[in-house]
């Protein structure tokens, strides 16, 4: 009974931690402004995104007829965008939140003239894009998750009224997002954001020289910390997905993003992830970020249960043990032996008590003569008299064009088992703070002179 209640207590605690402890971070993306960027369904099917903003409802407010503009994707005037309902539902079934972006840059055809006008726009959005009803829904009957405010022209007035009106529809949780420019506070959206009603604030750290990345992080970081003070659930780093996505600058090479920018900001309790402009330009950028963010595209609940690695690599290392004759070839030497052995030949009793130090070449394939990408350096000691088993402590010191840094391993290696898991306890450089599991397999074994290990490294914590 005591055991059962302990198990129950632990599972309750674990559920509580999964829900409350650390929230999931994810990548968002804008879709809709270029017909060559692929369909909405394909965008979601990449698995790279947790949020997709359909951009833009370019015209609304001030008694104008609202107008959706999805570039060449479809034509709302001929009702051809209603087929997007299937795509929207497909995205949502993968746990991806799909929002409608209203406003946008390069146009001044939206404006709220009064609080009453804001209420009318909210009612229009509710009936045509959210949980309400209308017989002319531009995107068909799929119900969007919320509204994203991309307000870059006109005044800052009445956007707070619109936010309050949208948040007031209680048949559906309407997610509210805003995309302010990084200079703090934002001229158009600060009033709206101050309502405290926004779930996601994706700050545009591009086309804004005073606060974007410019080879130097200082301006971006100080702006970021101002943004984390706003009353919103999550703050995102809004970035161009490629250099050419932002003529005014702000693109951050993915290596810099992963090794310098994200480590500096992700400690904020409100850090929500990265927002990208736009799907059209995202040629591998989100994938590379996810690699480092521990594949945050998938909602946290699913990610926790499936234990997906955030990085994986398979490498081989080759151990040539000194045998008294191969001094020039040997990469490993016995440096400690039990009283009944010596340092030339591994001792009897399953080598129990032998301690071997190695400096072995690492290769990408199983060929000893392939170009090495680094060295495996450390030791193994045989720690059981009645069966071959060892304890390993070593580092992969990688120095190739693809990988620079170290991965550190430690753990028991029951050699007679075909595969053995040992711990990846940390890393440096490209593997900064990495943790995970490495599955070892003895890939070749030639007497007491040579063996080759295949190391399948699965990292579950990446930075
Ligand atoms: C070193 O290893 C290479 C490749 O296995 C072999 O051709 C060579 O004879 C070895 N040299 C010595 C001194 O053992
Ligand atoms: C080491 O031990 C092996 C096996 O007992 C023996 O054949 C060899 O001569 C020893 N070598 C030295 C240097 O004592
Ligand atoms: C890594 O490689 C670079 C370039 O080949 C070389 O200059 C450097 O000394 C190497 N570092 C180590 C630790 O092997
Ligand atoms: C090694 O394999 C045996 C038999 O499959 C298994 O019972 C044992 O748990 C394995 N040992 C380790 C440390 O994985
Ligand atoms: C793997 C390897 O090259 N081992 C060599 C060690 O030295 C002995 C003696 O020279 C060779 O027979 C092995 O091939």
Automatic annotation (TrEMBL):
Chief localization: secreted
Keyword Membrane attached: no
GO molecular function terms attached to this record: endochitinase activity
Subunit field text: Homodimer.
Annotated PANTHER family: ACIDIC ENDOCHITINASE, ENDOCHITINASE
Protein name as catalogued: Dirigent protein
Gene Ontology cellular-component annotations: apoplast
CDD domains, per database record: GH18_hevamine_XipI_class_III
Subcellular location: Secreted, Extracellular space, Apoplast
Catalytic activity: Random endo-hydrolysis of N-acetyl-beta-D-glucosaminide (1->4)-beta-linkages in chitin and chitodextrins
